[in-house]
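Protein: Beta-galactosidase
Species: Deinococcus depolymerans
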Amino acid sequence: MRDSTHPSSLSTLRPAPLLLGVCDYPEHVDPASWPEHARQQRALGLRFVRLAEFAWSRLEPRPGEFDWAWLDRAIEVAVAAGLQVVLCTPTAAPPAWLVEAHPEILPVGRDGRRRTAGSRRHADLSSPAFREASARITQAMAGRYGAHPALIGWQTDNEFGWGDTAQGFTPAAQAAFQAWLRGRYGTTDALNDAWGNVFWSMEYSDWAQIPLPGQGVSASSPSHVLDFMRFSSAQVASFQADQVALLRRYSPGRFVTHNFMGFFSAFDHYEVAAGLDFAAWDNYPTGTLGALDEWKLLDPAFALTYARTGHPDVTAFNHDLYRGLTGAGRGLWILEQQCGQVDWAPSNPLPAPGAVNLWTAQAWAHGADAVTYFRWQAATMAQEILHSGLLRHDGTPDRGAAEVAGIDPARYPCVPVRNRVALLHDYESLWLYGAQPHAQHLNYWAQVFTYYRELRRLGVDVDILHPDSPLDRYDLIVAPALTLMTPERARHLHAAAGRSRVVFGPRTAFRTASGRAAQTALGGLLAQLTGARLQNFDSLPVGLPQAVGGHRADLWAESYVPEDPATEVLHRYEGGPLDGEAAVTRRGLVTLIGAHSPGLIGEVLAGALRAANIPTLDLPEGVRLSRRGEVTLLQNWNARPVTWCALELAPVSTTFLRTAEVQARAAPHLHPSPDPPPAASAGPRLKEST
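Structure follows.
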């Protein structure tokens, strides 16, 4: 049961306002400064502090001996200043005594080298000794603080998988993987058949013969990789579930969440989030901008446009992804929000003036019920000395503090986010795509993000969901890279296509649940749905484009053969080995796109949106709309002013508009044009610019 103070417990009369908090590390500073820090935090408008994230060595300095005095005092000081508390289980940073007593807990990397203590996440989740010690500290913390009246919730661990630790390569991990495979397949014959191990004489006759993938002379079988990723994800999920069960038992009525990372691929986040009240993630917009460079989606010179803000769609994508992890309609939390420069990207520029305000507002507009700034005071020690906080190293307020002080949480009502468009995403498709990408500079994230970005350019709000989620309330369903297909999933999508428009992207239904290639065109039932079968695919080297429908396809092009008289060919390839073959087909409400071409994708999506009677807009570069309830947040991520619909948008700013007024202002630019709203419904325009 959620505590009634939690912002997701929305009053039917008055929605809760956005909660603002801060990640604090009182153990890093002189205890004499704690009361003044708490007073300053409350004066900034902060409502809670997140504590004890990496404090295992202070909480349990020796095995089974606990020192609670310092944390007791830190909580007392926070409460005295009017602050509430989010506590973290400190299991992401095992103490040195645990490593000394049980060196087998240390992880082994993909290179076969055993890691050491001296950083964080230096533990193998398959280690019984580590699991036992983690359960002990979690139970002790929950027993000590679980009923504290100031405690509103828990964060489990920290950033699962950070430092490439989601996959274990220890002897314990190998034994656990072999046991997992035995439980899944029952016999080695069944495993050999599922994996296709007759290929290259890879057949196994004993479970002990099965190695961990990635250690061979060349690439491992994609089926082997897929199952290892499933196993590794299950290890993370079971570790999380152990903590969640203890927290539920000893700390009832408080929320439980975890802080995930943006675009992280190494485990199934839907599986790991299954027991949480809501998902959370750590939002660092300037740091995650590097994803676009990695995917070659922005010209390097153009990327500098967003160097001090991050890209709006990169950040929004992760908000929408994590909002959807635990089911449509729930909110999310930001448990770490950048408030100055970071220290871990290749370069770490200062954010633009107004960026902290912009990031906070955008997070709320995409469903965040709370934003937690990282961190309170910049660290004067160890690995994060160059990372900013709301206070500088000397304790004086930094630039981000001034922006936080100007935020009025009451202007951010935490109502549910309701959208008409769903974008489908799953990690098994991601893993299979990554095991055999077959195209330089094109990966699963880049393909999925391209569809998302085109939707956002058209002014459309998006829910990101697992493909097996309920889809009945959506008017348009977009599946950019749904590579893994099962009969059950195909039937689910077939039912969805009976009432909603559906757009599929390349590599759809190319793999079965075991990772083998589908021998029936587009997965059998899905072939009936699309009315087409895959003919050829062409991995295009950089600089060798393929013309299609007046657009340019780069990196990937696949063609189809219509197999139903009702299947229309919307676009054909022009020139090259695919000349004249179908690139985009449509049968009834289902469209299939084979070319990786942002322009073509945008055109097809715009047509599908109009057909679904979802209005679209042509938004200027760097300008985005996000809707929550009756409010539309208009954002300018550019370092220059922009005029849109007779509104002057200041650089790096937000403008709050009543949704009805947006429709009235944008009516001449909407496709299709909506009926004009009644004049009385427009209301006054609320504007906040920084």
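Remarks: The mean pLDDT is 92.
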